[in-house]
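Help! Submission page says 'invalid entity' but I think these are all valid:
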Amino acid sequence: MTIIAIYNQKGGVGKTTTSLNLAAALAKSGRNVVCIDLDPQAQLSDIAGVTAESGNDTVLSMFERNRSLHELLRKSASGFQVIPAHGSLSKVDVLHAKNYNVVNRLKASLRGDRLGDNADVVIIDCSPMIGVLSLNALFACDLLLIPIAADHLSMKGGIKLEKTLKALEPILKRRIDRRYLLTRFDSRRRMGWEVLHLLEEKFGREVCSTSIAESVSLAESPALHMSVYQHAPTSRGAQDYEDLLRELETLKLIR
Amino acid sequence: MTIIAIYNQKGGVGKTTTSLNLAAALAKSGRNVVCIDLDPQAQLSDIAGVTAESGNDTVLSMFERNRSLHELLRKSASGFQVIPAHGSLSKVDVLHAKNYNVVNRLKASLRGDRLGDNADVVIIDCSPMIGVLSLNALFACDLLLIPIAADHLSMKGGIKLEKTLKALEPILKRRIDRRYLLTRFDSRRRMGWEVLHLLEEKFGREVCSTSIAESVSLAESPALHMSVYQHAPTSRGAQDYEDLLRELETLKLIR
Ligand SMILES: Nc1ncnc2c1ncn2[C@@H]1O[C@H](COP(=O)(O)OP(=O)(O)OP(=O)(O)O)[C@@H](O)[C@H]1O
Ligand SMILES: Nc1ncnc2c1ncn2[C@@H]1O[C@H](COP(=O)(O)OP(=O)(O)OP(=O)(O)O)[C@@H](O)[C@H]1O
Ligand SMILES: [Mg+2]
Ligand SMILES: [Mg+2]
C-alpha cells in the first residue's frame, strides 16, 4: 500500500485537482484507491459526491474515538473510495495543537487498520494549513507530492515549504520522500518557464519531469462532480495526470 | 478611516494580489494607506519588502502585550505603510480559539489607536483560515471585499463563505457590508462567464461591476517586490484595480 500526501501551504496550487485526478488515473489503471480528505473545507468530498453528515463520518472519529479507517470508507462515482471531510475536522488542529504524539495517529491507524486489504494506493488531500491534520499526512506518507502552480508566489510557497520540511525531518528522524509537481503550466507565458527553471535549479531531480498544463477541462470537471477522465478524457489535463502516473510508476514510487 | 478586509477561505483566489494592488492604487491617488498583514505566511510583507524579525513586529504584540498599532507601522517601497506578519502570528489562532472576546481586539485597537492620524484607508490581507485572526478582520472592517477567482471551485468557496457570514452576523448583531470581486477573469473561457453569471444571480448588487482580468503582469510584479503600478502601469491588471478603486469611491464605500 503506497501512501501519497498532497500538500503545499500555498493556497490554490492544485492540491485538490491533483488528488482527484491522480486518484482517478490510478483507479482507471485497475488499482484500488482510497482518497482521504483531510481538509475541513471538504472540497474533494464535495466533488466526489460523498457527504459527511458530521465529524463522525470523518477521520475526526479516528482521532477522538479510535474508530477504524476502513469503517469510514465510502464509494464515489469517480472510481475510488473516499473518507470524507467535514467542517468539524478543524477541531483536530485546535484541540491537539500542543500534543506531540497526535501527529503519528494517522500513520499508526493506516498501518494497524485493514485498509491495506482495500487499498493499493491512499491519496491524502490536505488543506494549506500546516497544522495537526497536515502534519499527520506528512508523517504518514511514503511520498509527498507538492503541487507548485507556475507563478512566483507559488514558487515562494514551495521554498518556504522546503524550510518547514527541513525543520520537521530531525523530529521524524528520516527524510520525507518528495516530488515537486509544476501545475497550471502555460507554455506561452515566460513566467511559467521561469518558475520551471527555478524549480529545477533549486530541487533538481525532485522535480517531476511531468508538468500539468493549464487546462480548462481540469477546472470544469469539479462542478460536474467528475474527474477529468469522465469529463474530458482526451484533454491535455487528462493526458498530463496519466503521464504523471507513468512517471511515478517508472520511479517505483508507486507499485 | 475606512477599514477594508480582504478575505475568502478558498486559497489562491487573489486576496494578496488584491490587497497589494488596491493599496497601491489608493496610495497613487494621494491617500494615506496602511496594509495590515494578517497571514502568518507573510506574503504581502515579503512583496512589500517589510520583514518582521519576530512576532513582536506584528499584531501578535497587540494581542499579547496590548502594543499600539501605530508603533508597528513600517514604510514600504510601494507607497503604503505595512504592519508585517510573521510565522509566529499563527499562535493567535491556537491560543485564543476558545476566547470569545478576542475577536474584537483588532477593532478596538484600530479605533483606540492613533492609526487614524496616519491612515485614510486600512487594508487587511487575511489567510484563508477562518480562525481568530480572520475573524478579527471581519469584525473590524467597514467593508469586506471577497475575491472570487473565475473558476468553479472558487465559486463554491464563495457560497460557503456566505453561509459562514450568515452564521457570524447574529453574533456581530449587524450585517457585514460586502462586495464580491471576480478575479483572474479570462473572457475567452466560457467558465469565466458561467462563474460571473452565477455570482450575479446569487449575490446581485453585491457583485462588483469591475472584474479583475487574468493578467500576467499581476502575477509577475510580486517577484519584483512591486505593485503592478511600478511594474506594468499600462497593463490590463493595473487598469482593473484602478477601475475597482473608482467603483468603490462611486459607491461611497471609500471616502
Ligand atoms: N492545471 C490546471 N488547469 C486549470 N485549472 C486548474 C489546474 N489546476 C487547478 N486548477 C484550478 O485552480 C483552482 C485551484 O485549484 P485547487 O482547488 O485544486 O487548489 P488547492 O491547492 O487544492 O486549493 P486550496 O488551498 O484552497 O485547497 C481550482 O479552481 C482548479 O479547478
Ligand atoms: N488577476 C490575476 N491575473 C493573473 N494572476 C493572478 C491574478 N490574481 C492573482 N494571480 C496570481 O494567482 C496566484 C494566487 O494569488 P494570491 O496569492 O494573491 O491569492 P491568495 O488568495 O492571497 O492566496 P492564499 O490563499 O495562499 O493567501 C498568485 O501567483 C498571483 O500572482
Ligand atoms: Mg484543496
Ligand atoms: Mg494571500
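Support: the input was valid. A stray whitespace character was the problem, and the output above is from the cleaned input. Chain A has a mean pLDDT of 95.
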